[in-house]
Amino acid sequence: MRHEHIISAKQLSRADIEEVLDHAAEIAADPEAYADRHAGKLLGLLFFEPSTRTKMSFTAAIKRLGGDIVDMGPVEYSSVKKGESLADTVRVVEGYADALVMRHPSEGSAQMASEFVDVPLLNGGDGAGQHPTQTLLDLYTIRENAGLDDLTIGIMGDLKYGRTVHSLAHALTNFDVHQHFISPESLQLPRSVRYDLHEEGATIREHTALEEVLSSLDVLYVTRIQEERFPDENEYREVAGEYQIDAGTLEAASDDLTVMHPLPRVDEIDHDVDDTEYATFFEQAHNGVPVRMALLDLLLEGQ
Amino acid sequence: MRHEHIISAKQLSRADIEEVLDHAAEIAADPEAYADRHAGKLLGLLFFEPSTRTKMSFTAAIKRLGGDIVDMGPVEYSSVKKGESLADTVRVVEGYADALVMRHPSEGSAQMASEFVDVPLLNGGDGAGQHPTQTLLDLYTIRENAGLDDLTIGIMGDLKYGRTVHSLAHALTNFDVHQHFISPESLQLPRSVRYDLHEEGATIREHTALEEVLSSLDVLYVTRIQEERFPDENEYREVAGEYQIDAGTLEAASDDLTVMHPLPRVDEIDHDVDDTEYATFFEQAHNGVPVRMALLDLLLEGQ
Amino acid sequence: MRHEHIISAKQLSRADIEEVLDHAAEIAADPEAYADRHAGKLLGLLFFEPSTRTKMSFTAAIKRLGGDIVDMGPVEYSSVKKGESLADTVRVVEGYADALVMRHPSEGSAQMASEFVDVPLLNGGDGAGQHPTQTLLDLYTIRENAGLDDLTIGIMGDLKYGRTVHSLAHALTNFDVHQHFISPESLQLPRSVRYDLHEEGATIREHTALEEVLSSLDVLYVTRIQEERFPDENEYREVAGEYQIDAGTLEAASDDLTVMHPLPRVDEIDHDVDDTEYATFFEQAHNGVPVRMALLDLLLEGQ
């Protein structure tokens, strides 16, 4: 890995991404071979915001590599409460660990923190900013299920606020992918993201209804539409309802469709989809472990 | 272990119980022999409710077997707060661990969760429902101190609401045990539990005063009477006071009496009992480690 | 280590201190040699109050020795909330661990708790009482940077309420040290501490301005002046401002000056000091790991 820190999916070239995904595939094929690889190494966990999936899968990843964690714990119990700056906190904690994962509510905080430390820092989500390990596990899941070349993907739901979506869409421009964006008009891609994708030469199309494109998709990536984005509850229910899917919806899809979701879901994917061949969202969550193992291995190896 | 999940003490036959207790005794006799037995194995901790004893002793147990934990942490910091269903949470987390322990406020939740996962799930307490590992460590403590055959036990305190008591009483019907229940009338065994014990052929008697039976007991199992069960504080004090014991109370007991308590205690056992030969409640808490090591070993071995 | 528990810096003789610091230096010089030394050993963490530095560095320390932790977690999630006494909690938890670290808001609690357990107990701070491992890492940092013999140290800030300061000042009486205390009059050393230092034969002088003594110092130990010690905000700002330092302040200092701070800092040391040769406060925090490794190794070895 030529990078010292992993701050944004945008820093990763196609070669970087393929290095991580190839290594994740090697690890997934023979995890036992990596069980002692980083024995004695400590990963510092700095979660300034709640997290289940990211924190637990980073924990599982370092432990599956033979290492261990040093956890700051909930921020209410930390010296941040005593007015300590983020720069001071990370400079203290780097003395307790061989690498750091940080989640923080402020966009740009991961970049800033990385400038103060000598150990590798991985961004576990910085507010409305980046969440690169989520993007990598999404790419891994797409590649394993549908391939990343000559791919047609539909990304549906809240395309305006979802950092997961922006990051994924950008990363997909490294590959030969047709991207369809499906959302209500009020939650379309922000102009800046659309511009960015065009700049990267992406092939994108926008839709307001899934039917327009469903049958052509290899992958359907669903995200949640949040009630707080709407002025009143009735409008929310009406709009959100149009972007929920169930087993019936998917009858019009290709038999090979892969349905993904970053989770947690509420009701945007009905539980009757869970038992179909389409459902790949739990596998997607589980892929967080080999992908994070691969990243940690590459970063710790480089030290 | 013929079971895949451990949900309820009721699922355990006499043979199952003896398999666990025998194995716990082997482990307690030579813990070093098990120190690397499950190296690399991860136990997922899903505590949707506070716990000290159960969580810490499961943590110690898997670590004493060479394994490690992946902890969801307090529920306020989890995606449950974002509206995720329990079924989704456990299906995600099973991808991070080789077995799961769950504590949850809703009766029946452990059974439900176990139906969604392929890794072993252990119930660490489901509301007013079951807490099978508590029952097993109680049985282990009784067997080590007084034996489970030809045993006379008194169970005292809140017999109406205490799940620990119901579960233990049921499990004891597998052995040759005389069970005495001592409580105020308002906190007697529920009719359904009494019926269940009769169905199982148990020999039970109910009392309102400890003196009626103390001298005949091999084991006295004390539980807490909670203030909130009473309409007013004065009534509580009066009633609860009659079911508190101290060193003086125990002068009428057999020299071999074993006094147990699931802990935490408040004032139902006076501190002057702690230094007597009767006091077995700290040993009982400590027995949680070998008993949970035995269970985990049997479940992980079977995989 | 001739001590079974580490409760107070006052229990440590000069020989004890040197044993710990010498061993910490050995460990820091070759940490790999200690990586499996206490494999399988469990350190119980009982933090009844928030902590970042102490908890994380004890965690790193036991893991760098090959051991692991069993953490009670935040007190809100523990059985302490159900009214359990501290004596009961520690007697339960000692069954899950090979040693205990405890932080508790009540002065004297660590001493009391140690009387109930058979495993080594380390005081991680007991309210206004003692915090001996902080003192040891302070001494280690001083020795590494300036030596403990023929030392001139200035201790500045809140000298009235700071337990860190009292403990350090007392420990320094074991060595050949000139101690200067710099503070506003309202926050001078308490009479009892001053008396104690005189009893120990310490050479101390008190000042209200840093300029009086800065140029003669080998070490400047800065602590925070807290707003809540002052009747009104204006008075606080005026007084506190006089005891803040920046790179300009330090132009009058010796080139070899070592600036320390127990952290977290707010604004008593300006960030422009961080990049100077004087700044030793992050190194000081990091020294918590080898010093705690040394202590744990000595205590666990003795078992």
TrEMBL record, chains A, B, C:
Listed Gene3D superfamilies: Aspartate/ornithine carbamoyltransferase
EC number from the UniProt entry: 2.1.3.2
Chain segments annotated as coiled-coil in the UniProt record: none
Known catalytic reactions: carbamoyl phosphate + L-aspartate = N-carbamoyl-L-aspartate + phosphate + H(+)
Domain Aspartate/ornithine carbamoyltransferase carbamoyl-P binding: 5-144
Pathway as given in its UniProt record: Pyrimidine metabolism; UMP biosynthesis via de novo pathway; (S)-dihydroorotate from bicarbonate: step 2/3
Residues covered by the Aspartate/ornithine carbamoyltransferase Asp/Orn-binding domain: 150-298
Keyword entries, A-Z: Pyrimidine biosynthesis, Transferase
MF terms (GO), sorted A to Z: amino acid binding; aspartate carbamoyltransferase activity
Known partners and oligomeric status: Heterooligomer of catalytic and regulatory chains.
NCBIfam families according to UniProt: asp_carb_tr, PRK00856.1
Known role: Catalyzes the condensation of carbamoyl phosphate and aspartate to form carbamoyl aspartate and inorganic phosphate, the committed step in the de novo pyrimidine nucleotide biosynthesis pathway.
UniProt record similarity statement: Belongs to the aspartate/ornithine carbamoyltransferase superfamily. ATCase family.
Database matches in PANTHER family: ASPARTATE CARBAMOYLTRANSFERASE, ORNITHINE CARBAMOYLTRANSFERASE, MITOCHONDRIAL
Protein name: Aspartate carbamoyltransferase
Gene source species: Halapricum desulfuricans
Gene it is expressed from: pyrB
